[in-house]
Structures are given as C-alpha cells and as structure tokens.
Amino acid sequence: MPTLSKRLAAEPRTSSRPQILTAADLTRIPWLVHGFTTRPGGFTTSYGGKTLNVGFTKDDLRASVERNRKRAMLAAGAVTKGEPWPLITLRQVHSDIIHVVRSRKAGLIQQTRFVGDGLVTDLRGIALAVLTADCFPVLLVDTKRKAVGAFHAGWRGTVKRIVEKGVGIMRLEFGSRPEDIHAAIGPGIQQCSFEVGEEVEEAFHTQFAYAAELFHTVQESDAVRERYPMLFMNQRAPGHGDPCIKVHLDLREANRRQLLAAGVPEENITALKDCTVCQPRKFFSHRAERGKTGRQMALVGIK
Ligand SMILES: [Zn+2]
Asked: 269: CA distance to ligand 1 center in Å?
C-alpha cells in the first residue's frame, strides 16, 4: 500500500489558496482576527503534495515554513497595509505556562523566545498562535476588554488545566469577566480516534470529578474474534480485562468542561467537530502519520 505522502502526491493539486477555518461566533466580532489553518495550499513539499506546514519541523525547509506563515497570516486577515502582523508563537512543551505578550517586538519568521503553551495579550496588530497536529488549539476572546488568548491543549496540558488557567490569567491581567469571554476549540484528535492507555485515564481521574464522563469504552469489532470466540475466552484469565475493549478520550469535551468550570457561558463556546486523524487530506496528524507530519496553526489577534 502506498504511503499517505505518495498517495497525496499522486493527486492533482487542489486550489492553491489556503483554507482557514473560523468559528462563526467569533467572526461576528468586528475587531477580531482569528482562524485555524489547514493542510492544503502552501509551499511545503515534504509531506506529500503542496502543503501549508507552519511548523519549523526537521523535515521542512525553513524558507517554505516562512512563506507558509506569511500566506496564512494574509489569508486570515492578520495584515496591515499589505504587511503581515508580527506573529508570536511558542516553543510548546505540554505545560500550563502562559505568557502575557506586552510588546510587538517579534518577527514573522523568527523562532519564538517564549517557552510554554499559552499566550494572552490586549495589544493591537499582533497575532498570537499555537501550532498543533492532533492536540487541540483553544482561542479565547474577551469582547468587552478587547483581549485575546491562544492555548495549546494536548492531554498533558489539559490535565494541567491550561485553558482554565488561561481564563484566570485574562481575569488577572485584563480584568476580564468570564461571561464576556468567547471561546473556540479548533480541530484536533477527536474521541473517534483517541485511544488512550491507563496512565492517561488515571491522570484525569486524579484531577477532575467529572473524569468518568470524558472516557468511553469502544468494543473493537474483530472478524476473527467473532468467528472463534472460544479462542479469546481462553486467552486471558478471568478478571484480566478484555483485550478488545479500548478506552477513548474526548479531549475536546475535557477542554469545554474547563471553560465552563472557569465561568465561560455554554453559548459562548464553539467547538469544531473536525478530527485531524480522520481527515488526512485536510489536516496534519501526528498519530495518523506516525510523527512525520507538519503543523497547522490557530491564530488570534486584535485589529
Ligand atoms: Zn477521528
């Protein structure tokens, strides 16, 4: 079977315009720029076809990533007089570290000076961004105080409450009230594709009273198993669990619950349904491509 890269390369090139996903709720805010980039429509050739990889990965050329970033910024509208805004990104480490951006001194192309997984600001004319390839990007917007935030939430960051703390930082720094905050949870690895091990389940159970609601058991349909049930009955001693029962995590819901816990009204939360693993032509996916993949970007800024 050809690899994903080969299959994608063999297909005719799609539209060269990058596709930026948005949350309808946030598009109604006139002074806001936001968006979630997708896979097609860039200058990168390392991942099959031409893609909009915006992460400085080891496989990609730096020049391609810089061009892709500029293209994404223009497509999202993070631009003044034809020039893209400064773009602030992070060296992401699956933490709960959030930086308050107080200066525009950052370039489009430079590698970031911030280490952490969240950025907030009330400065105009800069874009905050997180990069993902299965982890969830979460954007926060305070419509009254004009402040924004971008957060990178994988399972580790979610256990550390990165998004819940993000709301807290906005309250502290900008005087934000949770009821004025609107949130968008972008594309990520949805429940359908997120099989997890016991250590993940345990980590959530130690932190959240509602943890049980985030995990779902999935019975793997297995033709061999159905045909020869005796084989499987004898495979394990009683009480040792069924090897065909898998546990899946709903990480999108975990982050939605944190927003609710922080006081963000339910009607202010938009969660995109896109699964990065299930849509390989539309998104980069760390899990689907076994680590050799690009990154998409969630960005937010104030005009
Ligand atoms: Zn999926």
From this structure: 21
What's the rounded mean pLDDT across residues 178-195? 98
Tell me, in angstroms, the distance from the centre of ligand 1 to residue 205's CA.
Answer: 23
Token representation of residue 214: 């985030």
51 alpha carbon – ligand 1 mean position (Å): 21
- Please give the average per-residue pLDDT across 109-114, as a whole number: 63
| CA–centroid distance for 136 within its chain | 3
CA–centroid distance, residue 271 to ligand 1 (Å)? 15
* pLDDT band at residue 107 under the 50/70/90 scheme: low
Domains of the chain, residue spans: 4-189+252-302, 198-245
Q: What is the pLDDT of residues 23-79, one digit of tens each?
A: 999 999 999 999 999 999 999 999 999 999 999 999 999 999 999 999 999 999 999
Model confidence, pTM: 0.88
Question: At residue 300, what is the residue type?
Answer: V
- Size of the chain, expressed as the number of residues it contains: 303
Token digits of residue 121: 């600001």
Residue 291 Cα to ligand 1 middle (Å): 16
Residues 71 and 43 sit within 8 Å (Cβ to Cβ): yes
Determine the 3-state secondary structure of 91 from DSSP. Answer: strand
Output the six-digit token pair for 50: 């031409």
Using the mean position of ligand 1's atoms as its centre, give its distance from the Cα of residue 180 in Å: 32
CATH of 4-189+252-302, one of 3.50.90.10, 3.30.450.40, 3.60.140.10, 3.40.50.80: 3.60.140.10
Greatest extent of the chain over all pairs of C-alpha atoms, in Å: 71
